Structures
1.
Amino acid sequence: MKAPLFRRWLRIAVLATALGSAALRADEAPAWRYTVKSGDNLINIAARYFARADQWPKVQKANNIADPNRILPGTVLRISPELLHKTPGEALLESVSGSVRWRMVDGDWQTAENGQQLVAGSALETLDDASALLRLADGSKIVLAPNTQLSLDALTLYAGGLMADTRMRLQRGQTTVGANPEQRENQHLRIETPSAQAVVRGTHFRLGADDEVTREETLGGLVGVSGAGKAVRVPAGSGTIARAGEAPIEPVPLLAAADVSGLPKRFEHLPMRFPLPALSGATSWQGEVAQDESFDRILLAKSARGEMLTLADLPNGDYVLRLRAVDGNGLQGFDAAHRFTVFARPFPPGINTPGDAATVRDARAKFAWTNVLDIERYRVQVARTSDFAELLYDETLSGEAWQTPEELPPGQLHWRAASIAADGKQGPWSVPATFIYKPGPGAVDVGRSALQIESETLNLKLPPPPDGLGYEAVVSSDKQLESPLGQASADDGQLELPRPGVGTYYLGVRLVDRADNTPGPFAVQKIEIPPSKLWLMLLLVPFGL
């Protein structure tokens, strides 16, 4: 069973002053701390800053002032905000990235825009791969990570802006808060989450929440978190979690920043894969991508387990990866920043033929690659070396196929292809393919052959073939050898074919590579088959009887 609503909301107040003082109740308005200056008295202070100038006796009583007209300069007065002149404030939506939307209470969601002013009662939501940066009047910066919803409950200015009371609810997701960077007095920021009760004081911290758990990581300053009647103080470099209806755990050290020096610095093919470094205590990782190290605009956010962080897609450009380890409590450690470049467009074509590890036997090799959408020109390179320093061909072509004009040199070769956009810009090279060009067997030297026409066979004698090669012979009635009357093969140069009838025939002989049965060209001879003496004798026998 979930805790009652009042116990399920983690109340957080970020205050710029009095870090060591007692925490305010979550529902208590912070007092205005006014430092008395020379010439000040309660009457003229009330005239300048109070909604009703006649309310100064309340301040006199609350602060034990004997004479309202004589107050020692430097005295700090605590003044209830209820007495002060107040005006509604605004929060500047300084930047949005991706799909970000906003609404008023009970209103419809609308698309959020850069530079938009948000008022109390509005809510802001980031969707997948989206982020938003809120800027308060005191310079406080609140960055909403993807899939985060934040409600602005109160944006109130007091005493002409000398005091601010900002109250928000982090309903789900994660924020990174840089509170009151100029350390201005009386600037109060409170954020509530649905888990427990707490008061937070600090300058730089992360806050993540869902329906059951709130996780807080203090990066700078001091944070106090309370729940179920217990409070803990979380110094910089530590974190805690608060579950609904339970006391927060004692602060634990955050995991150190990982060594990211060995991560890839350039990606020419998608998706992008970052090998995750080894770090003791890390159970998972959180990665975020932005265009600069401020991370005011988060372009991608991805968690990962195992050995690899994979990011699907980014446009060409320079980026920063912010990587942090996550411990067994789900607390995220310190950030490690890694710069990298994406150069993946226009996408390269896929290699078709010859594929990697293929053997090419044609004297003029044929190359083919896939069609890339909206690409009409390609660049193809063939080289002797894998670094393409010794080019054999470097061609810019239309279409998806090409044949070398000349025979390639035998041996191991390499080829790759790239797309060229309409503006003439070339994209990255494809993954190279390595192939072997092995010329097919040469022609048979028929001048060294001998043919014996026997009564029933044709006996062809050839020199022993080179190692790995054999012979094939075909006898046919046409010189194209398309209608074979007999055929034979041998690896020792001795071939026997059936003898055809009397007439003119064509004898074709070729070498064959036994490793892959690649044939060489036929050497074709015209032969005459004479009448057989045995055949003539058989014809005469009946007439002699």
Note: The two ends are 121 Å apart (CA to CA).
2.
Amino acid sequence: MAIIKLPFIQENKCYTKRLQKLKSFFLLLQKSTLFKMKKICSLLVLCHSFIALAQSPTFTWSEGNSSIENELNYSIQNYFDGKRIFNVKSIYNDKIFNKDVFVDIFSPNDDFEKDESNFSIGLEQPVMGLNTKTITALFPLSNKEYVYFVTEFNSETKEFELFTQKVNIDTGTKTKLSFLTKMPAKNAFNIGDYFIAQSENNQFYGIVSRPTGEKKLNEKVTLYVLDSNFKIVKSKEYEFGFTTKQSFDIKIHITNNGNIALVRELDLPKIKPYKSLFYWDTKTENITEHNLKQNLDFQLSQFKWKESDNGSYFIASVSDGKRKVTIDLGGALPEGNPVNELLLMHFDATGKITLNIKTTLEKQNNLNFEKVFLKDNKLWLLCNEMYTGNKRLPAPYPSKPLERPIEYSYISTGFSVIKIDTTTGKIDWFTRINNLEPRAINDNGDHLKYLYFFRNNQLVLIYNDSRDINPNSKYFVRDSRFAVTSIINNEGEIVSTNDIPNSGVGKTYNFCYELDLSFALPVDENNFIVRSRCGNSARYGYLKF
């Protein structure tokens, strides 16, 4: 019998005992002449799992650290140009009634030192009394450029105008404003709304212009499709069968071929509120309404879109809305997001529905949609189970009693992954990772999230797991977060969950950095830039597979 040789595995204290058992098992098998092919296959799978265990991802961290400006409630996007990291932060500032946009720039080749801090790329405002320009939306382009959609109330013409402007996040230079469209407005406080979206392939932009309507008249809007050069290629006026008082927000989606879908919640007389979807096929000019009202007055609490080569997938959660799960976050009692069913719809390139199916789930107390991937004709839906809450704190300064800060709290009970067959709409499997985490405060929940990677046809999740360190000693540390990795295979099995050895994160009595899960910037196929945090201090480094 041929001798079966084990691949080289670097031993350490965590694996020694298991590896010795595996080696002994192989020696016994070599002496046997009666083992079957099934046993050989099982051994290969077992051996592969040990190899994967030994080849855990590794972290390397910079020697220095950088200060972190306040990121609470900011919308943050990160960009790596191969040389430097650009941290783009935007937030609505109610003191100036506009979006603030800032950039932090770091140099990985210089121990991640900060080149620029809070470099402002917002709009320059005119002197008091003149028309004010407002950033309504911003989207990333390429080559360190963003596009701003800018609105302005023209007091002379009584019109609400919309412009585009390109901005370089490296230099801060901006192009001249380019006019797009306008609509009538009554005054500076009654101007209407623009709703804007970017397609998944960045080739189209969808805009809905909604002027201030009359209370008793049906709502009228204008829909626009822009190409990648921000030129209007299609437009259409449309009148809904309800007033502006019967529907408020508009959720807009534009497909990769330039069609527009709108989701509205309708509050009509004698009917419990429900959502409806309006689809505009720009080739035929037809707008079709698809009623999303559910049986027993169940509600669509959240939804995601995912583009494919043959159309668009619409995934929504359906809830009975009767049971709201709450968790005490130290005074804040946030509501959970219970889910009874999943709704999957597929629209072809013309807006025709080719799939419309609901699948019952064992009721989940809190399932928040985060990411949707399309892989091998299957949809992978990644969800967190994070609860969020807030409470108003006492005023820190007696002289300013009205300036009471808000404390934001976060807690997570784990993560869920759902795999859906796009042909049948049925769920292949539902896998949950139970990971109850203690409360985090004012960190955007960044320590309670996860990093996700598809490798070797498996989903790799990296997240934090909390535990007490050095109990019954003077070096006791409660709830220190350490990096953990879980691997979910194509069949939904959690094939391994292990600590990442020597990850360089986790609080001790004299060290407080924990893994920040807000981003992982790809450098190449196997390397990613990551961040750890301690209060207002950050260390950057690399995650390597």
Note: The longest strand covers residues 406-421.
3.
Amino acid sequence: MHNWRKMSNFDPIIYKKIAVIIIKIMKTKKLALSFVLIASAAITSNAQQLPNSSFEEAWVKCDPWTSNGTTTVGETPTSWTIANVPGYKSGILGWLGKLEVGKKIAGHNSASAVEVFNGVTFGKNVPGYFSLGTTWSTANTTQGGGADGGTFGGVNLTYCPDAVSFWYKDTRADATEKSTVVAYLWNGTYKQDKVPGNISMLKNGAETRTYVTMVNRDRNILGMQTAEGGAITSQGTLIAKIDQYLTGNVANWTEQVIDFNYVDQNAAPQMFNIIFSAGDYWSASPKKGNSLSIDDVALLYYSRLSDLKVNGATVAGFDSKKFEYNFLEKVPALSSVSATKMGNAPKTVSTELAANGSDILVTVANQAGANDFDGKNTHTYTLSYMNEELDGIFTVNTQNPNGSLSVEVQQQDMKLFFKKNADGKYTVIIPNTSKYGTITVDGVVSEDGKNFGKQTFEVVLAGGKATVAIQGIANENDFLYSYSVTLNGETRILTFTNNSALSGVESVEGLSEKVVAKAGSIEVCGVNGSVNVYAVDGRLVKSVAVNGEATIELANGLYIVRTPKTATKVLVK
């Protein structure tokens, strides 16, 4: 309870000074007022965000509400109310015991922020807090009790935020107390009768407390007991809430994000309030000197995921703010993908398979006009896979100064990947080669992705910028690919195949040799040694000893012609 308003133990000197005033006041009849605090206590927020959330608008005079009139105590940011203490209203001396518990300070990269701090008046510690609602306090001082207070009302809000974010600094003169953030969404109207709304003093049994029917009191909405007040005569629905402590000391501006707990997923909100307190907002004993500074308050409407799984495992490197993921594997079934939306507020999560069949798109959409951290209300996570995955053997050869090739290393059980891009060209990837790391070639021109003539590219490899010449052939059963990699003046030839009979070839296109298809035959030039002709199924069709050049007659069909230095795909017609 807000017993921090308890005024039972005045300083004796103060009590003597106001004794005469009490006598005069209490000659009037006992007051028993009751009225309804109407909807004017609610400030309208005409969008999904809060009014003056950065506190850069004008600071205006603060007139703390009481049921016995108002008086100006300090300043407060427009649309917000700092819980400055009005004190006790005397007929002669005016308002006694006024106290400011908040002020304007330099903000987080801005000119203005709010600092609230616990203070002391009438010898009692009082809390520093501020709110979008109306702050109030009460106490029955001479009888030693009747203390209560808090906030009522708020702003209109029909959206369902997932979280509140803000920047803060926190100073703990007494580390036993923590600062507090309280926020809540509701609809309907909560009314409580016989709530005392002023600080009073008694003489000769006469009562100076004035009473109201309070509308949308914080404790009523949150389902908490109240120290003062009568029956709750009408109710609404609590939809979501935050009630969280902040730990100090936090010397520098620090961002904090707190998710709402939605207690009703189906009800539509109408009203919202938020409270920032320098101490424990619900405590009876605020600690003097504790302070809390707040800037840049915002409501977040998540259109993101908290988790994204494929085949039951979270995507490697997943982060809610990372939207592109690349995988060196073929696209999985859409049914293997599961997405968990971030936050507790209701929203839509949809998944769809991209048109090219190699990307999975997971789209998270929020309410129209309700924006996330980056000002967007829709985010799409792209899981980018490969169109084709080939298993085979890589042979790495060193090109010697005389043009010959020598086998450097044979890397077993490696993979080659193809991905069709939006422009119709292909990306070809060799992952994790022993010499160059992953080799990625973008922009390969091909009709089917797997068959293409020699093309040269500038790529960046683990050792630096390199020139890569790439060529490939494939059919239903076999494939053969060649990479000529020139890096730092050194050239290596990488060949990749699934046919062990072809695994020793040095390149697809000849270095100094030439193989040309003719009608019913092939011609070989610049060859000294055996020429072996293979069918696409790996069968040896012909073996010919060549000294310089030769014509080899063949039936129509697709062949792989292997010379001492090269392997070439030819089509005989």
Note: DSSP finds two helices and 43 strands in the chain.
